[in-house]
């Protein structure tokens, strides 16, 4: 296990980057705590895999350093970093049996055969392949091969970190849930530092202690699932986390009121003068339709998804979503909407603004 430090780290795939726009990974300074489970979450092309490959040693960053427990490993090859990495698409030895594939990392480090056999059996049970140990990897489905790849990544207990690059892409949905549960249990049992890259918010939020949200090559927030949901530090986090995501509405904020086309929304706290692009953000869970209270809204359609209802509506020319209870009746006379003042976030140029007299 290791504490991983990213010091002034940035990367460009261009030979002579001239400005920030040329960097696939914008400048980053952060400590990844020893033994914590992190998820790198973001849309395709946001820089997640670039960052993971720098940590693993597959890429040398354009600028900055990476340290494991204070030791500079920026120029160290992957083999010298004592990590295990599992890629999006399965990497297995087709001519070997499942058993030998799982045993390979241990035998390569000279572990005795009794320990190898015990550990292989344990991992095979974890990935549901006990009855396939003597089969050749050649001819197995992509799903089965990826389980082998995951198992080989997890078989060693002595690694500094376990890195997963969208490892469940080719796994069927039911097995995804089981393997995520097993990965979490592995972390709880052995305390490895784990970094898990995904574009799937469910995978990220159910796996990680802390989620690192990336957008356009930049880390926009690092936090617990609750922090990302309740206090998105960037409007992208609000859009990306939640289903549906946060409503973001242009507004003019003065003190404890947000003005929208001459009408106002009450805020729980006061704000100083704000410049640039100002918006308020409110989760659909904290909006409520009414017949008499709130501001005018036009309901466009109601989607019943079983657990609750999603109301698609128009609010002063902006599309918003409201979540209502499954048993809540939504009638044509419900033409007003109100927001919980304590749950409204304020943003200037996409970044969350802390209320006056309060920490961010």
From TrEMBL:
SUPFAM superfamilies with a match to the protein in the record: MOP-like, P-loop containing nucleoside triphosphate hydrolases
Keyword annotations from UniProtKB, A to Z: ATP-binding, Cell membrane, Membrane, Nucleotide-binding, Transport
Pfam families in alphabetical order: ABC_tran, OB_MalK
InterPro entries: AAA+_ATPase, ABC_transporter-like_ATP-bd, ABC_transpr_FbpC, ABC_transpr_MalK/UgpC-like, Mo/tungstate-bd_C_term_dom, NA-bd_OB-fold, OB_MalK-like, P-loop_NTPase
GO cellular component, one term: ATP-binding cassette (ABC) transporter complex, substrate-binding subunit-containing
Presence of keyword Cell membrane: yes
Highest rank taxon of the organism: Bacteria
GO molecular function: ABC-type ferric iron transporter activity; ATP binding; ATP hydrolysis activity
Residue intervals of the ABC transporter domain: 4-241
PANTHER family: ABC TRANSPORTER ATP-BINDING PROTEIN, MALTODEXTRIN IMPORT ATP-BINDING PROTEIN MSMX
Family note: Belongs to the ABC transporter superfamily.
Name by which UniProt lists this protein: ABC transporter ATP-binding protein
Species for this entry: Pseudooceanicola nanhaiensis
């Amino acid at each position: 296990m290791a504490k991983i430090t990213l010091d002034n780290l940035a990367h460009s795939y261009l030979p002579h980057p001239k400005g920030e726009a040329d960097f696939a990974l914008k400048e980053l300074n952060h400590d990844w705590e020893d033994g914590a489970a992190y998820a790198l979450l973001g849309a395709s092309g946001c820089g997640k895999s670039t960052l993971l490959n720098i940590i693993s040693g597959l890429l040398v960053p354009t600028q900055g350093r990476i340290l494991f427990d204070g030791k500079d490993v920026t120029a160290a090859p992957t083999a010298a970093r004592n990590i295990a990495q599992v890629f999006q698409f399965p990497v297995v030895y087709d001519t070997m049996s499942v058993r030998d594939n799982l045993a390979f990392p241990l035998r390569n480090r000279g572990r005795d055969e009794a320990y190898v056999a015990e550990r292989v059996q344990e991992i095979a049970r974890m990935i549901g392949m006990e009855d396939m140990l003597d089969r050749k990897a050649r001819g197995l489905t992509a799903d089965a091969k990826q389980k082998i790849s995951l198992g080989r990544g997890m078989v060693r207990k002595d690694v500094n970190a376990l890195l997963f690059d969208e490892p469940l892409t080719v796994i069927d949905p039911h097995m995804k849930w089981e393997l995520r549960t097993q990965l979490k249990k592995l972390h709880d049992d052995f305390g490895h530092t784990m970094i898990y890259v995904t574009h799937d918010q469910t995978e990220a939020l159910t796996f990680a202690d802390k989620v690192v949200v990336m957008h356009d090559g930049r880390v926009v927030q690092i936090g617990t699932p609750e922090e990302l949901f309740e206090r998105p530090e960037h409007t992208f986090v609000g859009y990306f986390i939640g289903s549906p995501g946060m409503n973001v509405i242009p507004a003019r904020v003065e003190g404890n009121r947000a003005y929208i086309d001459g009408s106002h929304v009450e805020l729980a706290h006061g704000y100083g003068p704000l410049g640039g692009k100002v918006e308020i953000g409110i989760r659909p869970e904290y909006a409520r339709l009414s017949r008499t209270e709130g501001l005018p809204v036009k309901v466009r359609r109601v989607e019943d998804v079983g657990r609750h209802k999603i109301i698609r509506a128009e609010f002063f020319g902006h599309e918003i979503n409201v979540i209502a209870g499954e048993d809540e009746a939504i009638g044509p006379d419900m033409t007003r909407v109100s927001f919980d003042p304590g749950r409204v976030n304020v943003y200037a140029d996409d970044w969350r603004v802390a209320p006056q007299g309060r920490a961010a």
